[in-house]
Amino acid sequence: RADAEASVRGLRALHRVVKELASRRLLPHKREFCALAPCVADAVGQLFARHAQAALGAAGDGAGVLDGPGAVRALAAAALCAKTQRQLLVHGFVGLRTDGADAG
């Protein structure tokens, strides 16, 4: 349980750091974030898959209801991964945007 709580705390910290880095406006900072985003996005995607699978596995044990603390924790961790992934995709992959003005 302590390990799972530490994992969620780590995900929260990662989400805050990614959110802070994504909000930087100067071009050198954007370039650094864009260089970092693909590596982090891959790792966060793997974490999301693991936590989502754990939540779905816990829901499959009963009547499709997430009632255990482990299932709720896994679902919360998957949601944090999805939020972090969104920040990485929206701000870290400028080539995916339509304007491309700050692709530099």
Question: What would you say this structure looks like, in words?
Answer:
- Helices cover 77% and strands 0% of the residues.
- The protein is built from 3 helices and no strands.
- Helix 2 packs antiparallel against helix 3.
Distance between the termini: 45 Å
Amount of helix: over 70%
Give a quick account of the main beta sheet: strands, pairing sense, barrel closure.
none
Low-confidence stretches: none
Based on CA inertia axes, which overall geometry fits? elongated
Taking all residues together, what is the mean pLDDT?
82
Strand-pairing-aware structural class: mainly alpha
* Beta-strand residue fraction: under 5%
The tally of beta strands, per DSSP, is: 0
Helix count, DSSP H or I runs of 4 or more residues: 3
SSE succession: HHH
- What's the oligomerization state? single chain
Radius of gyration: 16 Å
Pick out its properties.
104 residues, mainly alpha, elongated
Summarize the structure.
Helices cover 77% and strands 0% of the residues. The chain is an all-alpha fold.
SSE diagram, text form:
Elements: H1 2-22, H2 27-61, H3 69-92
